[in-house]
Amino acid sequence: MMPQTELLEKYDGWLKKTGPSALIIREYLMPVEGHDGVLFPATFAASQDNTFKGGYNIDEFSDGRNVCLIDSVGSQANRIEPMFMEQGYARLLPQVVVIAGDKHVNLLEAGHRAGDAIVRCSGLVEDLRNAFNEVQKGNAEPMAKIAPTSLVFGVWDSRDTQAKLPRLVSSTIRAYDVHPLTRSATYIPPIDHIAEGTIPDYEGDKKKKEMYSKRGWLHAIPSRTHGGVIAEGGIRRDASLHLAALRLLKAGGDENKTLLLRRYILGLALTAFTAMPASYLRQGCNLVLDAGKQCELKLVFNDGRREDVALTHEDAIAYAKATAEAFGIGPDRDVMFDKELAKKDVDDSATVGKQKNKRSRAEKTM
Fold first, then answer.
1. Which candidate, 313, 288, 295, 284, places its Cα nearest to that of 42?
2. Predicted confidence (pLDDT) at residue 316 exceeds the cutoff of 90
3. If DSSP codes are grouped into helix, strand and coil, which group holds residue 137?
4. Residues 265 and 151: beta-carbon distance below 8 Å
């Protein structure tokens, strides 16, 4: 076993100004059905200006090639972060739980992390506001004591202090040169409900007929809807740990505390970065490693050099445990959701919205 001091100093070279810019992983994936299997990408709503009609996010190039987004940066982060609630990881950081009625929501499950509405309107509100204010002053230590994964996966306190922290760990899955497919289906109810008189006749009312169909009382015949894609050019997960951004984190002007902070956040980031991501993303999208292609793990330097690096998930956990102990993680906390704070937040949002609309109308008349 490596001595504690040696373990703590193991990656200090990465934390120096002359250190590498990033650590990158490139993993080649395939559907469980095989290379030519059909997979279902994420679907997205239409854009407000209607330039994107909704559906799969496929970017087309002039040479006929394309790239399809399978899982976004935000989605990947929200899949990875809850791992820190599991046994073997939970003691690496504080477990902060917001109690809202019968619901217990761990901060690690909140999509906007320390900036999420559920924690903004809880007993954490003042501590988090102080932590965000300290971030803006160049002191990330208070945030690391409450919500350290907000430093790892990024956070924006867009509804209050406007403090913003970039993602240190980003991961995206894309498929290349895809062929979109369509699918059709027919649903036939077990009996003719109109003919049998089990429900009232819709009497030519198209909206009522559509409602009956959606509720399963009439035939439903969806035709040529999204049917997945075949990725002829393969599927790849690209992940980056931005060491240059990590080196911007400080604990005020205290150099020793800053080093402890950076080591701690690096430990959490390495643990998240090297973890095997979930293979099942959604119905019709179960991806596994392509055994025929070698995964890449490299350090990337400012001058463009790329060096292979040997780093296992077990190495990352051992380092994270040592740095967490040296840093001193914050306490576990159970806090109550505050309905009055939520009501005030909603009311304030409505007031701001009205003011923006009023300004917009005034500008149009000028």
1. 284
2. yes
3. coil
4. yes
